[in-house]
Amino acid sequence: MRPLRVLVAKPGLDGHDRGAKVVAQALRDAGMEVIYTGLKRTPEAIVAEAVQEDVDVVGLSILSGAHALLCERVVRGLKAAGGDRVKVAVGGTIPQADIPSLLEAGAWAVFPMGTPLPAIIQVFERLGRSADRADAC
To answer: Using CA of residue 33, residue 37, residue 39, residue 43, what is the dihedral sign?
Structure first.
Protein backbone atom coordinates (compact mmCIF):
# COMPACT_ATOMS: atom_id res chain seq x y z
CA MET A 1 0.00 0.00 0.00
CA ARG A 2 1.41 3.36 -1.00
CA PRO A 3 1.74 6.12 1.58
CA LEU A 4 -0.77 8.93 1.63
CA ARG A 5 0.25 11.66 -0.83
CA VAL A 6 -0.36 15.21 0.40
CA LEU A 7 0.09 18.59 -1.26
CA VAL A 8 0.53 21.41 1.29
CA ALA A 9 -0.20 24.73 -0.37
CA LYS A 10 -0.23 28.42 0.53
CA PRO A 11 -2.87 30.08 -1.66
CA GLY A 12 -3.24 33.81 -1.91
CA LEU A 13 -0.92 36.53 -0.77
CA ASP A 14 0.15 35.22 2.63
CA GLY A 15 3.84 35.80 3.17
CA HIS A 16 4.15 33.65 6.28
CA ASP A 17 4.59 29.90 5.89
CA ARG A 18 6.11 28.65 9.13
CA GLY A 19 2.91 26.82 10.11
CA ALA A 20 2.58 25.17 6.69
CA LYS A 21 6.18 23.99 6.86
CA VAL A 22 5.73 22.64 10.40
CA VAL A 23 2.61 20.72 9.36
CA ALA A 24 4.33 19.43 6.21
CA GLN A 25 7.26 18.12 8.25
CA ALA A 26 4.94 16.52 10.82
CA LEU A 27 3.01 14.74 8.06
CA ARG A 28 6.33 13.53 6.54
CA ASP A 29 7.47 12.30 9.95
CA ALA A 30 4.19 10.36 10.17
CA GLY A 31 5.08 8.52 6.94
CA MET A 32 3.17 10.54 4.34
CA GLU A 33 4.61 11.76 1.05
CA VAL A 34 4.34 15.54 1.22
CA ILE A 35 4.85 18.13 -1.48
CA TYR A 36 5.05 21.76 -0.38
CA THR A 37 4.18 24.33 -3.05
CA GLY A 38 5.75 27.43 -1.53
CA LEU A 39 4.16 30.84 -1.07
CA LYS A 40 1.58 32.80 -3.04
CA ARG A 41 0.07 30.08 -5.19
CA THR A 42 -3.09 30.62 -7.17
CA PRO A 43 -5.96 28.14 -6.74
CA GLU A 44 -5.48 27.17 -10.39
CA ALA A 45 -1.79 26.36 -9.83
CA ILE A 46 -2.63 24.32 -6.72
CA VAL A 47 -5.24 22.32 -8.64
CA ALA A 48 -2.80 21.66 -11.48
CA GLU A 49 -0.10 20.46 -9.08
CA ALA A 50 -2.56 18.27 -7.16
CA VAL A 51 -3.71 16.55 -10.33
CA GLN A 52 -0.19 16.24 -11.76
CA GLU A 53 1.19 14.81 -8.52
CA ASP A 54 -1.80 12.46 -8.06
CA VAL A 55 -2.24 13.46 -4.41
CA ASP A 56 -4.88 12.14 -2.06
CA VAL A 57 -5.25 15.28 0.05
CA VAL A 58 -4.60 18.99 -0.50
CA GLY A 59 -3.84 20.91 2.69
CA LEU A 60 -4.45 24.65 2.34
CA SER A 61 -2.75 26.97 4.81
CA ILE A 62 -4.49 30.35 4.84
CA LEU A 63 -3.86 33.26 7.19
CA SER A 64 -5.25 36.12 5.10
CA GLY A 65 -8.92 35.78 5.92
CA ALA A 66 -9.74 34.77 2.35
CA HIS A 67 -10.18 31.10 3.32
CA ALA A 68 -13.79 30.80 2.08
CA LEU A 69 -13.06 32.09 -1.41
CA LEU A 70 -9.75 30.24 -1.81
CA CYS A 71 -11.13 26.93 -0.50
CA GLU A 72 -14.14 27.14 -2.78
CA ARG A 73 -11.96 27.89 -5.84
CA VAL A 74 -9.65 24.94 -5.12
CA VAL A 75 -12.54 22.51 -4.53
CA ARG A 76 -14.35 23.70 -7.67
CA GLY A 77 -11.12 23.54 -9.67
CA LEU A 78 -10.37 20.00 -8.56
CA LYS A 79 -13.83 18.87 -9.62
CA ALA A 80 -13.46 20.57 -13.00
CA ALA A 81 -10.03 19.00 -13.52
CA GLY A 82 -11.24 15.48 -12.72
CA GLY A 83 -9.64 15.51 -9.29
CA ASP A 84 -12.86 15.29 -7.34
CA ARG A 85 -11.53 12.29 -5.38
CA VAL A 86 -8.88 14.61 -3.86
CA LYS A 87 -9.88 15.73 -0.39
CA VAL A 88 -9.22 19.29 0.76
CA ALA A 89 -8.26 20.25 4.31
CA VAL A 90 -7.96 23.89 5.38
CA GLY A 91 -5.92 25.31 8.23
CA GLY A 92 -4.84 28.69 9.49
CA THR A 93 -6.48 31.78 10.89
CA ILE A 94 -10.03 30.53 10.65
CA PRO A 95 -12.78 31.68 13.01
CA GLN A 96 -14.86 28.87 14.50
CA ALA A 97 -17.95 30.47 12.96
CA ASP A 98 -16.54 29.90 9.46
CA ILE A 99 -15.94 26.16 9.85
CA PRO A 100 -19.46 25.03 8.83
CA SER A 101 -19.38 27.10 5.64
CA LEU A 102 -15.95 25.72 4.69
CA LEU A 103 -17.22 22.16 5.17
CA GLU A 104 -20.30 23.02 3.13
CA ALA A 105 -18.05 24.44 0.39
CA GLY A 106 -16.32 21.07 0.09
CA ALA A 107 -13.53 21.02 2.66
CA TRP A 108 -13.22 17.64 4.36
CA ALA A 109 -11.48 19.02 7.46
CA VAL A 110 -10.76 22.42 8.99
CA PHE A 111 -7.94 23.17 11.44
CA PRO A 112 -8.20 26.54 13.19
CA MET A 113 -5.14 28.11 14.82
CA GLY A 114 -3.88 26.10 17.76
CA THR A 115 -4.92 22.67 16.47
CA PRO A 116 -2.36 20.22 17.89
CA LEU A 117 -0.14 18.45 15.35
CA PRO A 118 -1.16 14.94 16.51
CA ALA A 119 -4.80 15.84 15.81
CA ILE A 120 -3.92 17.09 12.31
CA ILE A 121 -1.93 13.92 11.57
CA GLN A 122 -4.77 11.73 12.82
CA VAL A 123 -7.33 13.47 10.60
CA PHE A 124 -5.05 13.29 7.53
CA GLU A 125 -4.60 9.56 8.12
CA ARG A 126 -8.38 9.15 8.27
CA LEU A 127 -8.81 11.27 5.13
CA GLY A 128 -6.49 8.90 3.31
CA ARG A 129 -8.54 5.85 4.25
CA SER A 130 -12.02 7.26 3.96
CA ALA A 131 -14.25 7.70 0.97
CA ASP A 132 -17.02 9.04 3.17
CA ARG A 133 -16.92 12.46 4.79
CA ALA A 134 -18.59 11.15 7.96
CA ASP A 135 -15.80 8.60 8.45
CA ALA A 136 -13.03 11.14 7.96
CA CYS A 137 -13.83 13.63 10.70
So the answer is: negative
Taking the C-alpha atoms of residue 33 and residue 72, their distance in angstroms, rounded to an integer, is 25
d(CA 120, CA 114): 11
- The alpha-helical segments, DSSP class H, found in 13-116 are 18-29, 43-52, 67-80, 99-104
Tens digit of each residue's pLDDT (9 = 90 or more) over 42-60: 999 999 999 999 999 999 9
Calpha distance 85→61 (Å, rounded): 20
| 39 burial level (CB within 10 Å; 0-12, 13-18, 19+) | middle
Which pLDDT band, with edges at 50, 70 and 90, does 124 fall under? very high
Query: Which residues have CB under 8 Å from 14's CB, separation 6+?
Result: 39, 40, 61, 62, 63, 64, 92
